[in-house]
């Protein structure tokens, strides 16, 4: 009847509208008290409020980014927008999850949506490969997480976070004793599953490939939205329920390793998306600085860091999506951007400086607060390694700027505005 | 009205056929009322030919009386000055980044090149094509200057950082090597360009670009001609 129109643009506008309506609805109903819904399965408090509004804002920005993308790619896949909305919904549940089962279900729903949209470009082998990798590793990590949950449940008989928090108050996990070793294993498995999901270092293997393979819009969504939701969930689990210094050592290690790998591996990258993947791994490391302190300042700085990281990433991916013509793949293709699109070049360099943590910008503030929190709780080694790796990562962020402003490349690429 | 005009047209065609059969080989001119001598729309600036649509970048300046026909690609910050004709109906014409095509230029493209070069008319970055030039399927590489009234015939190649003097003619398949000044008809080597001249070529292009910016500020994205057309229609009591 309508000659089979491509519904992508219409659906994405409608999706954007629905996300904005959801933002309004959430933001207008400010939580005055802590409310537990659905038999203590979900919780609404100020923390979830902030995280959810912020997540919706980031989703809206992703959808805004993709409006032009589908048209140019002539990718008629309106289901990807619907999947983005679905996964956003599941992430909202994830942020406010207050039960191991609710948490796991939300994570699983989100991951399933992500597997599909990672492989959404069916005619490109990169995308299918990315989808497959992501599917296998994501399923694996979900399995690990679920195993951890079952261990916890088996050794405590409780899945609710509040009950868990009651059980674990003053609970020193020692490796001696029959039941505590099981609990220790459970917490360890849950932590490993989470670290898989957030691409922290020992479990980051899939991230660069998936980020590079999947369509750029999807990459943007992967590197923006899940970070918020999973970090919120981790804060909920590990700060509230299992508040204990033992697992903090694990995050301590992950933080150091992520920072180092993110700084060193991104140096050797030539492709933009891979570089952004590694830089996001490094930023997860910086965020874990605040996480592994476990102090109030640490959590505050973590939230500030997530906020600023997400804004910067939205910025970078918007620029990358704007430059997506002519198979913009390598960093060297940025050459002469300062001549062809000076304002875009300035924007990109400001964003890169902000990533690197150059003082008058927001990225500096976030890193500064994180290191400050680390120093405040006595993690001097963490702060030291953070500063050193941030200086190292300055190198490749500034390489962008150098390429844009000082190189004359062989081939000039002109980008449509 | 319509019927009558159709009938008149048929009669006239019959008359023309009779006329031709009476006097074979003689050209006839019969006025028909389908040919208008004054088109109120003027000359369209962008004329698609078949599937080939001219592409003009957003920050390029193309003067209002330029005709872009066929596969013409005017890239970012390029300027095409008044009265030029860029006819890429047989092959592609590319006006590169920040280069300018002067007034009253004619840029053709032939379908097949006699030489091994591509038959596209390619103008690189930061080029300056002087006014009244004619370019047919030639390649002008980056930062070259072609003077006024030059004729570049098919398959000729002006390499980087080189200049063509005014009024020179580049015969088919001739190559102006990099960094040299050629002039004459047919063009001959005059001298090597000094480094200062080579460095000043992009500055020249930038200066022209800034001038074009001033021109471009005089134009709005939509003209107001349609208002005049509506007034005319009301005046002549034509139904919209």
TrEMBL record, chain A:
**Domain of life from the UniProt record:** Eukaryota
Membrane topology of the entry = Multi-pass membrane protein
Q: Which GO terms describe its biological process?
A: ATP synthesis coupled electron transport
The protein's UniProt keywords, in alphabetical order, are: Membrane, Mitochondrion, NAD, Translocase, Transmembrane, Transmembrane helix
Compartments where found: Membrane
Domain named NADH:quinone oxidoreductase/Mrp antiporter transmembrane: residues? 97-393
Assigned GO CC terms = membrane
Stored NCBIfam families: NDH_I_N
Which HAMAP family does the entry link to?
A: NDH1_NuoN_1
Identification of the protein by name: NADH dehydrogenase subunit 2
Species of origin: Physcomitrium patens (Spreading-leaved earth moss)
Q: What is the lineage of its organism?
A: Eukaryota, Viridiplantae, Streptophyta, Embryophyta, Bryophyta
TrEMBL record, chain B:
| One Gene Ontology term, aspect cellular component | mitochondrial membrane
Name of the protein in question = Uncharacterized protein
Membrane topology label: Peripheral membrane protein
The lineage's top-level taxon is Eukaryota
Q: What is its main location?
A: mitochondrion
Subcellular localization(s) per the UniProt record? Mitochondrion membrane
Q: Which family does it belong to?
A: Belongs to the gamma-class carbonic anhydrase family.
Its taxonomic placement starts with:
Eukaryota, Viridiplantae, Streptophyta, Embryophyta, Bryophyta
